[in-house]
Amino acid sequence: MNIHEYQGKEILKSYGVRIQEGIVADTPEEAVEAARQLNLQTGTKFYVIKAQIHAGGRGKGGGVKVAKNLEEVREISKKILGMQLVTIQTGPEGKRVNKVLVSQDVYYPGPSEPKEYYLSILLDRSVGQNVIIASTEGGMDIEQVAEADEEIKDPKQKKIIKEWVDPLVGLMPFQARKLAFKLGLEGNAFKEMVNFIQALYKAYVEIDASQFEINPVLKTSDDKILAVDAKVNLDDNALYRHKNYAELRDITEEDPLEVEAAKSGLNYVKLDGNVGCMVNGAGLAMATMDIIKLSGGEPANFLDVGGGANAQTVEAGFRIILKDPNVKAILINVFGGIVRGDRVANGVVEAYKNIGTIKVPIIVRLQGTNAEEGARIIDESGLKVYSAVLLKDAAAKVKEVISSVK
């Protein structure tokens, strides 16, 4: 589950991670009041206005601006709030901005130059350990830094630093010191970075996060280390242990069809193709999407109805898939293990009749328990539904119907 920057920062702050202070606002008037409060709390003279959406690259899209006074806070907030912010991570449709974070200015003059770094923590599944990724190239697109890093042969010249942490042992103090040293820090900034990394890792583990990305981590001109940004992703499977964090979910940032599917107990992810698919089991769903690709189509979604598919879940799946205007055909691929093929077939027929007019062709491939009985029910239904038993038959039928609608 993704959460907003301001929410992530509050969590980090509760674990002793120093952050760029800020106050969230829903209107230009609230933004001005937030700036006044920040001035009293931190003494800041300038204010950074940040659009709050679940996507990176906000600055390049015009979603991060600096205000030099309260009037500029009002004007900038008025422009950002309600805008459709397009970034490299939102796609061309962008995302509507409903909140802004008014933050303190942390790039103030001092005895040394400010410096930006990159830090992230995530699970490296290849070794079964958490990995801390750090770089001196903070504030930049880390993907570009990593791509350029692959061309550097000398390990000492590489910009990406990785430190793996055994989850059974936890982060050892020497590992935090090692990272701070490799980032080139010294003196008070070195000590601050060590404390920052230790607090960040403690937060990552204890809140059951699946990803932390702090870009940039700032060394201020007076050698403080703080999080200027915070991308925090929480593990959905662990939210039962953190009910207060579950309340941070913002469904306005999620695809409406995915939200609707979750309410029906369906696992749905919208894609950009033209063939909708409904499957029981994640592995079979992946194979089904491969079939669609090999047949000349493009999968329009990932939809897993689970092992206990019935008429209600099939109907809910139909309704969600049909709301995508790009769908030209639907492939239902079900293996009858826990659920019987005839039960699925009856569910398809019943759902078809309940929905009414369905203009796109439907291919139903059944295999396993009572698959033949299910195919007979489909064939005798009189509906625009085609049955298949073998994967190659289903693939051929998908190719046929896709060709007919082009």
UniProtKB/TrEMBL annotation:
NCBIfam families found in the cross-reference section: PRK00696.1, sucCoAbeta
Spans traversing the lipid bilayer: none
GO biological process, any: tricarboxylic acid cycle
Catalytic activity: GTP + succinate + CoA = succinyl-CoA + GDP + phosphate; succinate + ATP + CoA = succinyl-CoA + ADP + phosphate
Pathway(s) it belongs to: Carbohydrate metabolism; tricarboxylic acid cycle; succinate from succinyl-CoA (ligase route): step 1/1
Pfam families: ATP-grasp_2, Ligase_CoA
EC numbers: 6.2.1.5
Details of cofactor binding: Binds 1 Mg(2+) ion per subunit.
Residue sites binding ATP per the record: K50, G57, R58, G59, V106, E116
Positions of the ATP-citrate synthase/succinyl-CoA ligase C-terminal domain: 278-398
Gene symbol of the encoding locus: sucC
Enzyme type, top EC level: ligase
Ranges for domain ATP-grasp fold succinyl-CoA synthetase-type: 2-217
Biological source species: Rhodocytophaga rosea
Subunit details: Heterotetramer of two alpha and two beta subunits.
Function: Succinyl-CoA synthetase functions in the citric acid cycle (TCA), coupling the hydrolysis of succinyl-CoA to the synthesis of either ATP or GTP and thus represents the only step of substrate-level phosphorylation in the TCA. The beta subunit provides nucleotide specificity of the enzyme and binds the substrate succinate, while the binding sites for coenzyme A and phosphate are found in the alpha subunit.
Name used for this protein in its record: Succinate--CoA ligase [ADP-forming] subunit beta
Residue numbers binding Mg(2+): N215, D229
InterPro entries, A to Z: ATP-grasp_succ-CoA_synth-type (IPR013650), ATP_grasp_subdomain_1 (IPR013815), Succ-CoA_synthase_bsu_CS (IPR017866), SUCC_ACL_C (IPR005811), Succ_CoA_ligase-like_bsu (IPR005809), Succinyl-CoA_synth-like (IPR016102)
Gene3D superfamilies reported in the protein's UniProt record: ATP-grasp fold, A domain (3.30.1490.20), ATP-grasp fold, B domain (3.30.470.20), Succinyl-CoA synthetase domains (3.40.50.261)
